[in-house]
Design goal:
mainly alpha
Protein backbone atom coordinates (compact mmCIF):
# COMPACT_ATOMS: atom_id res chain seq x y z
CA UNK A 1 0.00 0.00 0.00
CA UNK A 2 2.89 2.36 0.68
CA UNK A 3 4.27 1.69 -2.83
CA UNK A 4 0.84 2.39 -4.31
CA UNK A 5 0.70 5.67 -2.39
CA UNK A 6 4.14 6.69 -3.68
CA UNK A 7 3.20 5.90 -7.29
CA UNK A 8 0.00 7.92 -7.05
CA UNK A 9 1.81 10.83 -5.43
CA UNK A 10 4.36 10.84 -8.25
CA UNK A 11 1.59 10.83 -10.85
CA UNK A 12 -0.24 13.62 -9.03
CA UNK A 13 2.95 15.67 -8.81
CA UNK A 14 3.58 15.30 -12.55
CA UNK A 15 0.01 16.33 -13.32
CA UNK A 16 0.20 19.33 -10.98
CA UNK A 17 3.51 20.46 -12.47
CA UNK A 18 2.03 20.24 -15.96
CA UNK A 19 -0.72 22.67 -15.05
CA UNK A 20 1.46 24.87 -12.84
CA UNK A 21 3.77 25.50 -15.79
CA UNK A 22 0.75 26.80 -17.73
CA UNK A 23 -0.60 28.82 -14.80
CA UNK A 24 2.70 30.44 -13.83
CA UNK A 25 3.64 31.61 -17.30
CA UNK A 26 5.93 34.57 -17.96
CA UNK A 27 3.13 37.15 -17.97
CA UNK A 28 1.53 35.86 -14.77
CA UNK A 29 4.87 35.73 -12.95
CA UNK A 30 5.62 39.29 -14.09
CA UNK A 31 2.21 40.43 -12.81
CA UNK A 32 2.81 38.66 -9.49
CA UNK A 33 6.18 40.36 -9.12
CA UNK A 34 4.62 43.79 -9.64
CA UNK A 35 1.70 43.06 -7.31
CA UNK A 36 3.92 41.61 -4.59
CA UNK A 37 6.36 44.50 -4.95
CA UNK A 38 3.53 47.04 -4.68
CA UNK A 39 2.16 45.26 -1.60
CA UNK A 40 5.57 45.15 0.09
CA UNK A 41 6.18 48.82 -0.73
CA UNK A 42 2.83 49.77 0.84
CA UNK A 43 3.64 47.54 3.82
CA UNK A 44 7.02 49.23 4.34
CA UNK A 45 5.50 52.71 4.12
CA UNK A 46 2.64 51.79 6.46
CA UNK A 47 5.10 50.45 9.04
CA UNK A 48 6.73 53.89 9.24
CA UNK A 49 3.51 55.70 10.14
CA UNK A 50 1.64 53.00 12.04
CA UNK A 51 1.28 53.59 15.81
CA UNK A 52 2.74 50.97 18.13
CA UNK A 53 1.16 48.46 20.49
CA UNK A 54 -2.55 49.06 19.84
CA UNK A 55 -4.86 46.58 21.57
CA UNK A 56 -6.01 44.82 18.38
CA UNK A 57 -2.54 44.23 16.90
CA UNK A 58 -1.90 40.95 18.71
CA UNK A 59 -5.31 39.40 17.91
CA UNK A 60 -4.73 40.48 14.29
CA UNK A 61 -1.45 38.57 14.28
CA UNK A 62 -3.32 35.52 15.58
CA UNK A 63 -5.91 35.82 12.79
CA UNK A 64 -3.25 36.18 10.09
CA UNK A 65 -1.32 33.17 11.38
CA UNK A 66 -4.55 31.15 11.47
CA UNK A 67 -5.36 31.79 7.79
CA UNK A 68 -2.99 29.05 6.41
CA UNK A 69 -5.11 26.49 8.27
CA UNK A 70 -7.81 27.09 5.66
CA UNK A 71 -5.46 26.01 2.87
CA UNK A 72 -5.13 22.36 1.95
CA UNK A 73 -7.19 19.30 2.78
CA UNK A 74 -6.08 15.72 3.27
CA UNK A 75 -4.92 14.30 -0.07
CA UNK A 76 -5.89 10.64 -0.49
CA UNK A 77 -5.87 10.25 -4.32
CA UNK A 78 -8.47 7.51 -3.98
CA UNK A 79 -10.37 6.50 -7.12
CA UNK A 80 -13.91 5.09 -7.53
CA UNK A 81 -12.46 1.73 -8.60
CA UNK A 82 -10.68 1.42 -5.25
CA UNK A 83 -14.05 0.69 -3.67
CA UNK A 84 -13.88 -2.74 -5.33
CA UNK A 85 -10.18 -3.50 -5.76
CA UNK A 86 -8.78 -2.19 -2.46
CA UNK A 87 -11.72 -3.12 -0.23
CA UNK A 88 -9.84 -6.04 1.43
CA UNK A 89 -6.97 -3.69 2.39
CA UNK A 90 -8.76 -1.91 5.23
CA UNK A 91 -6.23 -3.04 7.81
CA UNK A 92 -3.28 -1.81 5.74
CA UNK A 93 -4.58 1.68 5.00
CA UNK A 94 -2.39 3.27 7.68
CA UNK A 95 0.68 2.68 5.51
CA UNK A 96 -1.16 4.25 2.56
CA UNK A 97 -2.43 7.32 4.39
CA UNK A 98 0.82 8.27 6.13
CA UNK A 99 2.65 9.41 2.93
CA UNK A 100 -0.57 11.17 1.89
CA UNK A 101 -0.66 13.13 5.14
CA UNK A 102 2.99 14.16 4.75
CA UNK A 103 2.27 15.29 1.18
CA UNK A 104 -0.79 17.24 2.34
CA UNK A 105 1.41 19.28 4.69
CA UNK A 106 3.68 20.70 1.98
CA UNK A 107 1.51 23.53 0.60
CA UNK A 108 0.06 24.66 3.99
CA UNK A 109 3.57 24.70 5.49
CA UNK A 110 4.92 26.84 2.65
CA UNK A 111 1.98 29.26 3.03
CA UNK A 112 2.51 29.38 6.81
CA UNK A 113 6.22 30.16 6.45
CA UNK A 114 5.49 32.92 3.91
CA UNK A 115 2.76 34.43 6.08
CA UNK A 116 4.91 34.23 9.22
CA UNK A 117 7.85 35.86 7.43
CA UNK A 118 5.75 38.70 6.02
CA UNK A 119 4.07 39.67 9.30
CA UNK A 120 7.19 39.11 11.46
CA UNK A 121 8.19 42.84 11.42
CA UNK A 122 4.66 43.90 12.31
CA UNK A 123 4.40 41.30 15.11
CA UNK A 124 7.73 42.11 16.74
CA UNK A 125 7.94 45.89 16.18
CA UNK A 126 4.35 47.12 16.28
CA UNK A 127 2.57 44.40 18.28
CA UNK A 128 5.54 44.06 20.69
CA UNK A 129 5.62 40.25 20.59
CA UNK A 130 8.91 38.67 21.61
CA UNK A 131 10.60 36.76 18.75
CA UNK A 132 10.70 33.53 20.79
CA UNK A 133 6.98 33.78 21.57
CA UNK A 134 6.31 34.43 17.89
CA UNK A 135 8.27 31.31 16.91
CA UNK A 136 6.20 29.24 19.34
CA UNK A 137 3.02 30.76 17.89
CA UNK A 138 4.05 29.73 14.36
CA UNK A 139 4.97 26.25 15.65
CA UNK A 140 1.54 26.02 17.32
CA UNK A 141 -0.17 26.81 14.03
CA UNK A 142 1.86 24.09 12.31
CA UNK A 143 0.84 21.59 14.98
CA UNK A 144 -2.78 22.71 14.59
CA UNK A 145 -2.56 21.93 10.86
CA UNK A 146 -1.17 18.47 11.60
CA UNK A 147 -4.01 17.89 14.07
CA UNK A 148 -6.54 19.12 11.51
CA UNK A 149 -5.26 16.64 8.91
CA UNK A 150 -5.27 13.80 11.46
CA UNK A 151 -8.91 14.59 12.25
CA UNK A 152 -9.69 14.54 8.52
CA UNK A 153 -8.06 11.10 8.43
CA UNK A 154 -10.12 10.06 11.46
CA UNK A 155 -13.31 11.12 9.65
CA UNK A 156 -12.51 8.75 6.77
CA UNK A 157 -13.29 5.78 9.00
CA UNK A 158 -16.65 4.67 10.34
CA UNK A 159 -16.57 6.99 13.33
CA UNK A 160 -18.64 9.89 14.51
CA UNK A 161 -17.55 12.70 12.17
CA UNK A 162 -15.82 15.73 13.70
CA UNK A 163 -16.77 19.02 12.04
CA UNK A 164 -13.70 20.68 10.51
CA UNK A 165 -15.53 24.03 10.41
CA UNK A 166 -16.16 23.94 14.15
CA UNK A 167 -12.54 22.91 14.71
CA UNK A 168 -11.31 25.87 12.62
CA UNK A 169 -13.50 28.30 14.57
CA UNK A 170 -12.19 26.88 17.85
CA UNK A 171 -8.58 27.24 16.69
CA UNK A 172 -9.27 30.81 15.54
CA UNK A 173 -10.58 31.75 18.99
CA UNK A 174 -7.68 29.91 20.61
CA UNK A 175 -5.05 31.86 18.67
CA UNK A 176 -6.83 35.19 19.10
CA UNK A 177 -7.07 34.75 22.86
CA UNK A 178 -3.58 33.27 23.05
CA UNK A 179 -1.99 36.24 21.30
CA UNK A 180 -3.33 38.60 23.98
CA UNK A 181 -0.75 36.90 26.22
CA UNK A 182 1.99 35.74 23.82
CA UNK A 183 3.73 33.79 26.58
CA UNK A 184 0.72 31.44 26.62
CA UNK A 185 1.58 30.29 23.09
CA UNK A 186 4.27 28.08 24.64
CA UNK A 187 1.57 26.27 26.64
CA UNK A 188 -0.74 26.08 23.59
CA UNK A 189 2.06 24.66 21.43
CA UNK A 190 2.81 22.06 24.10
CA UNK A 191 -0.86 21.07 24.38
CA UNK A 192 -1.21 20.72 20.61
CA UNK A 193 1.99 18.67 20.49
CA UNK A 194 0.58 16.24 23.06
CA UNK A 195 -2.66 15.90 21.05
CA UNK A 196 -0.74 15.24 17.83
CA UNK A 197 1.43 12.60 19.52
CA UNK A 198 -1.72 10.88 20.85
CA UNK A 199 -3.20 10.85 17.34
CA UNK A 200 0.02 9.40 15.91
CA UNK A 201 0.69 6.74 18.55
CA UNK A 202 -2.92 5.76 19.20
CA UNK A 203 -5.03 6.17 16.07
CA UNK A 204 -8.60 6.69 17.23
CA UNK A 205 -10.40 4.99 14.36
CA UNK A 206 -12.20 1.72 13.85
CA UNK A 207 -10.92 -1.03 11.58
CA UNK A 208 -13.48 -0.34 8.83
CA UNK A 209 -12.76 2.36 6.29
CA UNK A 210 -15.61 4.46 4.87
CA UNK A 211 -14.65 4.07 1.23
CA UNK A 212 -17.65 5.88 -0.24
CA UNK A 213 -17.19 8.94 1.98
CA UNK A 214 -13.41 9.00 1.37
CA UNK A 215 -13.83 8.85 -2.41
CA UNK A 216 -16.46 11.60 -2.36
CA UNK A 217 -14.18 13.82 -0.26
CA UNK A 218 -11.29 13.26 -2.65
CA UNK A 219 -13.49 14.10 -5.64
CA UNK A 220 -14.50 17.37 -3.96
CA UNK A 221 -10.88 18.21 -3.19
CA UNK A 222 -9.77 17.53 -6.76
CA UNK A 223 -12.60 19.63 -8.16
CA UNK A 224 -11.42 22.59 -6.06
CA UNK A 225 -7.88 22.18 -7.45
CA UNK A 226 -9.11 21.76 -11.02
CA UNK A 227 -11.35 24.82 -10.68
CA UNK A 228 -8.32 26.85 -9.63
CA UNK A 229 -6.32 25.60 -12.62
CA UNK A 230 -9.27 26.17 -14.99
CA UNK A 231 -9.11 29.91 -14.29
CA UNK A 232 -5.91 29.99 -16.37
CA UNK A 233 -6.05 27.00 -18.72
CA UNK A 234 -8.27 24.17 -19.95
CA UNK A 235 -8.39 21.20 -17.58
CA UNK A 236 -9.62 18.02 -19.23
CA UNK A 237 -10.01 16.19 -15.91
CA UNK A 238 -12.40 18.80 -14.56
CA UNK A 239 -16.08 17.91 -14.35
CA UNK A 240 -18.54 20.76 -14.78
CA UNK A 241 -21.43 20.56 -12.35
CA UNK A 242 -24.29 22.83 -13.41
CA UNK A 243 -26.58 23.69 -10.52
CA UNK A 244 -29.18 26.24 -9.61
CA UNK A 245 -28.07 29.21 -7.50
CA UNK A 246 -31.22 30.47 -5.82
CA UNK A 247 -29.53 33.62 -4.58
CA UNK A 248 -29.12 34.75 -8.21
CA UNK A 249 -32.73 34.09 -9.22
CA UNK A 250 -33.50 37.80 -8.85
CA UNK A 251 -31.61 38.29 -12.13
CA UNK A 252 -34.12 36.06 -13.93
CA UNK A 253 -37.39 37.53 -15.25
CA UNK A 254 -40.43 36.54 -13.21
CA UNK A 255 -42.73 36.64 -16.25
CA UNK A 256 -41.82 34.07 -18.90
CA UNK A 257 -44.43 35.27 -21.40
CA UNK A 258 -41.89 37.40 -23.29
CA UNK A 259 -39.10 34.86 -23.11
CA UNK A 260 -38.04 32.87 -26.16
CA UNK A 261 -36.04 29.60 -25.93
CA UNK A 262 -32.67 31.27 -26.54
CA UNK A 263 -33.14 33.92 -23.84
CA UNK A 264 -34.39 31.28 -21.41
CA UNK A 265 -31.33 29.07 -22.00
CA UNK A 266 -28.74 31.87 -22.04
CA UNK A 267 -29.97 33.49 -18.82
CA UNK A 268 -29.75 30.22 -16.93
CA UNK A 269 -26.46 29.22 -18.50
CA UNK A 270 -24.67 32.38 -17.39
CA UNK A 271 -25.96 31.97 -13.82
CA UNK A 272 -25.72 28.19 -13.40
CA UNK A 273 -22.75 27.14 -15.52
CA UNK A 274 -19.67 27.53 -13.26
CA UNK A 275 -17.47 28.37 -16.25
CA UNK A 276 -19.55 31.44 -17.07
CA UNK A 277 -20.31 32.71 -13.58
CA UNK A 278 -16.70 32.14 -12.43
CA UNK A 279 -15.48 34.17 -15.41
CA UNK A 280 -17.69 37.11 -14.47
CA UNK A 281 -16.68 36.92 -10.79
CA UNK A 282 -12.99 36.64 -11.67
CA UNK A 283 -13.01 39.59 -14.05
CA UNK A 284 -15.01 41.74 -11.62
CA UNK A 285 -12.56 40.97 -8.81
CA UNK A 286 -9.67 41.83 -11.15
CA UNK A 287 -11.26 45.21 -12.01
CA UNK A 288 -11.66 45.99 -8.30
CA UNK A 289 -8.06 44.99 -7.59
CA UNK A 290 -6.47 47.09 -10.33
CA UNK A 291 -8.68 50.08 -9.44
CA UNK A 292 -7.46 49.86 -5.86
CA UNK A 293 -3.83 49.56 -6.98
CA UNK A 294 -3.78 52.50 -9.41
CA UNK A 295 -5.66 54.92 -7.06
CA UNK A 296 -6.41 57.18 -10.04
CA UNK A 297 -9.84 57.50 -11.63
CA UNK A 298 -8.73 57.87 -15.32
CA UNK A 299 -6.58 54.75 -15.05
CA UNK A 300 -9.30 52.91 -13.13
CA UNK A 301 -11.83 53.85 -15.81
CA UNK A 302 -9.62 52.77 -18.70
CA UNK A 303 -8.62 49.47 -17.13
CA UNK A 304 -12.19 48.72 -16.03
CA UNK A 305 -13.44 49.35 -19.57
CA UNK A 306 -10.83 46.86 -20.76
CA UNK A 307 -12.06 44.33 -18.18
CA UNK A 308 -15.69 44.82 -19.28
CA UNK A 309 -14.72 44.31 -22.91
CA UNK A 310 -12.74 41.15 -22.11
CA UNK A 311 -15.64 39.81 -20.05
CA UNK A 312 -18.06 40.18 -22.94
CA UNK A 313 -15.46 38.89 -25.42
CA UNK A 314 -14.98 35.70 -23.40
CA UNK A 315 -18.74 35.18 -23.06
CA UNK A 316 -19.31 35.23 -26.84
CA UNK A 317 -18.90 31.41 -27.14
CA UNK A 318 -22.09 31.08 -25.06
CA UNK A 319 -24.03 31.63 -28.27
CA UNK A 320 -22.95 28.16 -29.52
CA UNK A 321 -23.20 26.41 -26.16
CA UNK A 322 -26.33 24.40 -27.00
CA UNK A 323 -25.54 23.62 -30.64
CA UNK A 324 -24.42 20.08 -29.80
CA UNK A 325 -27.65 19.38 -27.90
CA UNK A 326 -29.92 17.15 -29.97
CA UNK A 327 -33.14 18.57 -28.54
CA UNK A 328 -31.98 22.10 -29.33
CA UNK A 329 -31.49 21.05 -32.97
CA UNK A 330 -34.78 19.16 -33.19
CA UNK A 331 -37.03 21.89 -31.82
CA UNK A 332 -37.94 24.76 -34.18
CA UNK A 333 -35.83 27.37 -32.37
CA UNK A 334 -34.91 30.42 -34.44
CA UNK A 335 -31.18 31.07 -34.46
CA UNK A 336 -31.04 34.18 -36.63
CA UNK A 337 -31.37 36.63 -33.69
CA UNK A 338 -29.27 34.79 -31.17
CA UNK A 339 -26.95 37.78 -30.80
CA UNK A 340 -29.78 40.00 -29.55
CA UNK A 341 -31.03 37.19 -27.31
CA UNK A 342 -27.56 36.89 -25.79
CA UNK A 343 -27.49 40.68 -25.28
CA UNK A 344 -30.74 40.48 -23.33
CA UNK A 345 -29.41 37.60 -21.23
CA UNK A 346 -26.15 39.39 -20.37
CA UNK A 347 -27.60 42.84 -19.67
CA UNK A 348 -28.48 42.07 -16.05
CA UNK A 349 -25.10 40.42 -15.36
CA UNK A 350 -23.15 43.34 -16.84
CA UNK A 351 -25.28 45.80 -14.86
CA UNK A 352 -24.42 43.96 -11.63
CA UNK A 353 -20.72 43.96 -12.62
CA UNK A 354 -20.86 47.74 -13.25
CA UNK A 355 -22.63 48.30 -9.92
CA UNK A 356 -20.02 46.31 -7.95
CA UNK A 357 -17.11 48.09 -9.69
CA UNK A 358 -18.74 51.48 -9.05
CA UNK A 359 -19.26 50.72 -5.36
CA UNK A 360 -15.62 49.64 -5.09
CA UNK A 361 -14.58 52.99 -6.64
CA UNK A 362 -16.60 54.87 -4.02
CA UNK A 363 -14.79 52.91 -1.31
CA UNK A 364 -11.22 52.89 -2.64
CA UNK A 365 -10.89 56.07 -4.75
CA UNK A 366 -11.15 59.74 -3.73
CA UNK A 367 -14.76 60.86 -4.21
CA UNK A 368 -15.18 63.69 -6.70
CA UNK A 369 -17.39 64.77 -9.58
CA UNK A 370 -14.96 63.14 -12.02
CA UNK A 371 -15.48 59.80 -10.29
CA UNK A 372 -19.25 59.93 -10.88
CA UNK A 373 -18.59 60.91 -14.50
CA UNK A 374 -16.34 57.88 -14.82
CA UNK A 375 -19.12 55.66 -13.44
CA UNK A 376 -21.48 57.05 -16.08
CA UNK A 377 -18.92 56.53 -18.86
CA UNK A 378 -18.37 52.92 -17.72
CA UNK A 379 -22.07 52.02 -17.87
CA UNK A 380 -22.41 53.67 -21.31
CA UNK A 381 -19.34 51.76 -22.54
CA UNK A 382 -20.75 48.46 -21.19
CA UNK A 383 -24.07 49.05 -22.95
CA UNK A 384 -22.34 50.04 -26.20
CA UNK A 385 -20.18 46.92 -26.24
CA UNK A 386 -23.24 44.78 -25.54
CA UNK A 387 -25.45 46.37 -28.19
CA UNK A 388 -22.89 46.98 -30.94
CA UNK A 389 -19.89 44.67 -30.56
CA UNK A 390 -21.60 41.49 -29.31
CA UNK A 391 -24.25 41.13 -32.10
CA UNK A 392 -21.62 41.88 -34.76
CA UNK A 393 -19.28 39.27 -33.26
CA UNK A 394 -22.06 36.69 -33.15
CA UNK A 395 -22.93 37.25 -36.83
CA UNK A 396 -19.38 36.29 -37.81
CA UNK A 397 -19.68 32.94 -36.07
CA UNK A 398 -21.01 29.92 -37.91
CA UNK A 399 -24.68 29.38 -37.05
Amino acid sequence: MRDLAKRRLQENLRQSLKYLVLVFNDFFILALIFLFGALMFWYAQAMKTMPENLWYYRPLVGILLWLPLLIGKLVTLLKPADLQFLLPEDENLASYLQPMLNYSLIVPTICLVLMAGIIFPFATIKAKIEPLDYVFAVFAVFLAKVMQLKIMEYNLFFNRKISISILNIFLLLLFILGMFKPKSMIFIAGLLLIIVIIFILKPQHAALFDWQFAIEQEEKRKNVVYNAFSMFTDVKERQTNIKRRKYLDFLLPQNLARENPNKFLYRRSVLRNPDNINLVVRMTAFAILISWLVQNWPWALGLSCLVVFLTIYQLVPMVDEFDTNVMYRVYPIARTKRGLDLVSALTGIMLVQWLIISISWLITLPISLHLFEAMGILVVFSYAVLRLYLPAKVKKRKL
